[in-house]
Amino acid sequence: MKFVKNYRCTLCGREYSKDEKIYTCPECGEKGILDVEYDYEGLKKILTKSYFEHNRDYTMWRYKDVMSIREEDIDKTLKVGWTPLYRSNNLEEKIGIKELYIKDEGLNPTASLKDRASAVAVIKALENNADTIACSSTGNAASSLAGNAARLGLSTVIFVPERAPQGKLAQLLIYGAKVISVKGDYRETFNLSKEAIDHWGWYNRNAAINPHLVEGKKTVAIEIAEQLGWQVPDWVAVSVGDGCTIGGVYRGFYDLLNIGLINRIPKILGVQAKGCCPFYTAYTENEPLKPTDENTIADSISVGIPRNPVKAMRAVEDSKGTWITVSDEAILEAMKTLGSSEGIFGEPAGVAGLAGVFKAVKEGIITKDETVSVIITGNGLKDVKNALKAAGDKIECKPDIEQLKRYLT
Amino acid sequence: MKFVKNYRCTLCGREYSKDEKIYTCPECGEKGILDVEYDYEGLKKILTKSYFEHNRDYTMWRYKDVMSIREEDIDKTLKVGWTPLYRSNNLEEKIGIKELYIKDEGLNPTASLKDRASAVAVIKALENNADTIACSSTGNAASSLAGNAARLGLSTVIFVPERAPQGKLAQLLIYGAKVISVKGDYRETFNLSKEAIDHWGWYNRNAAINPHLVEGKKTVAIEIAEQLGWQVPDWVAVSVGDGCTIGGVYRGFYDLLNIGLINRIPKILGVQAKGCCPFYTAYTENEPLKPTDENTIADSISVGIPRNPVKAMRAVEDSKGTWITVSDEAILEAMKTLGSSEGIFGEPAGVAGLAGVFKAVKEGIITKDETVSVIITGNGLKDVKNALKAAGDKIECKPDIEQLKRYLT
């Protein structure tokens, strides 16, 4: 918290004191998402390569100095972050690029990248003396909030759209959340949650509204940089729904650049599902964002009205990256390819980023001599139904050795 | 590998050279499970507390010197081990013991403790120039083998009993394994796999048969000790099926004691499901192990004929621990309690150890002034059906704020 200077509205640019209890810009309303601004000169003095070499905290809290949280309770949280960044053993050769690194965010405590935001949310709730946190979510934000809150003894109220996969619902219930299943799509879910949060005064974990959550998510980018010895790749690919995660990814690299730990920001590849791609459409048609259908198996990125457009568009634009879409078939194919080539099992939205890399390589957007990191945002166990679809039915029932011999030879 | 002295049969005590290509004792046959013996005097000189303080490899390979593997390919494996050991925030007070530590093995790459054995299996397969590994498994050993093998470009043939949960099957298929679903129970599955392995000469990952796998599993105990600053708890609780994991847990502490890093072995609480408890029965009735029914929701420990009886019985006896059984209802209850109190989601067999702790405290086996570590062996996402059963149906469909107000107030 010490190095936080102030908040600044991403729309109007107004500055607010870090002591103000606001989620969004009071002037611009709900769309006036805030940036947290830091004293980079101060950070430069302590966040050196040598500092990190000697830091033994292998969780996201190793980056606490460049986050907007009070440090008091961080030891009590789930162990979020410092997930593996694998150099590809088999895939990079298969697709023909120089280097491919795979960040397995499915190994976070509740099995998705969202833990990075939820860990911050529970700490902020304690700071604000709240005993209940609420959010609307297509699944992972909710289950991660419920798990992280349970660990700290906080209550949660979760608004989910009806279509959430069973694995994610099971998590919510086991973590003891109050689950409100909303008849409708993500936007109706979001609106009801907002109304309820205003009414009861719960702490708000909706990632777009709450500026601190992107500050949690950005740690995934900082980790990638550190795990690569502060040499960032040419590209970082990530799937995009609401826009908060890609906003966080950009923000992490932006902070590191300003602190002087890296010397450029990687190009960011924003990957959307073909059946729900408001960012891609706005980008290619050079038009403002328009609401779209939510028509993809990748539930975590099935967001027709993204709540964090400014940060997401900025991430791709300022990093000189691009947007791309992938079909549901390509997503299922990527799931199988990643599992069988590297032993990593991602959920549909989790592997969409990789499907985007495959397509970008084919189309020459990513060239053969470039290096790529892809973020697998969630664990495949969260959505077994779609995994079985991806795998096809390949189970053989063979009761004796003779039949087996005929089958295997 | 450098510190491996020889193999010794757990039944007849015969010694074999470490260069022999054997799985079990040639004299005693399949029941002659081998122990790997180490040069503890040599290990004492290098495995000091200071060595570990400076070791930056936060995977199970940080203990490679006390394992029976060649080190050549270990950098290419999935990142197994160094899972969180949480001090309980809320549960220890609830059950009224001095200290409770929870080891979340569900955060391994394929979401179970079995990764520790499978990572060794794939390294041994490479050592033996095998390109295919096979095993029979109730689920986790199989899915972890498939994932770890995929990462190294090895093929897998997996024999599963029909009842394996969907999550585990999905993993197998996504990791590209050849899956043979056997009509019958675990013993029939095991027998068919053995026949096929003999016939085709695949590398054998059946944990009881293969002595190196317990050497992988023991790292969970070594980690617990290191994460507690080499001060072991009074009790370590773990669920038991085949007997290999509990054998590994004992072995880890045994090694540390002989190396001089700890000064006693914790009492080991072996927890079995009431519907499948051959060890418990043999122990309480002081009789040899007899085949039993396999009648529990905890599929990973539903083993009517355990294949590693000697190591399992020795673990409890030599540690002065005890055996206990828990009902399926108690398992489901423990799943809910762990999730809602600590934000950790375990599968049925994964939380059976905790259910055992609850019962042991109630019965005065574990006393109020004792410290306990419990191993949560697998992730709850692997078995969503039972998780939903544990949670009950608590999803509320409330389409508008007025209905919500009535519901929440």
From TrEMBL, chains A, B:
What's its top-level EC category?
lyase
- Sites bearing N6-(pyridoxal phosphate)lysine, chain numbering: K114
> Which cofactor is essential here?
pyridoxal 5'-phosphate
Where along this sequence does the record place binding of pyridoxal 5'-phosphate?
A: N140, T377
Q: Record's InterPro entries?
A: Ser/Thr_Dehydratase, Thr_synthase-like, Thr_Synthase_bac/arc, TrpB-like_PALP, TrpB-like_PALP_sf
Top-level taxon of origin: Bacteria
Q: Which reaction does it catalyse?
A: O-phospho-L-homoserine + H2O = L-threonine + phosphate
DNA repair is among the record's keywords: no
Family under the similarity heading = Belongs to the threonine synthase family.
Protein's name according to its UniProt entry: Threonine synthase
**Which species is listed as the source?**
Vallitalea guaymasensis
Give the source lineage, highest ranks first.
Answer: Bacteria, Bacillati, Bacillota, Clostridia, Lachnospirales
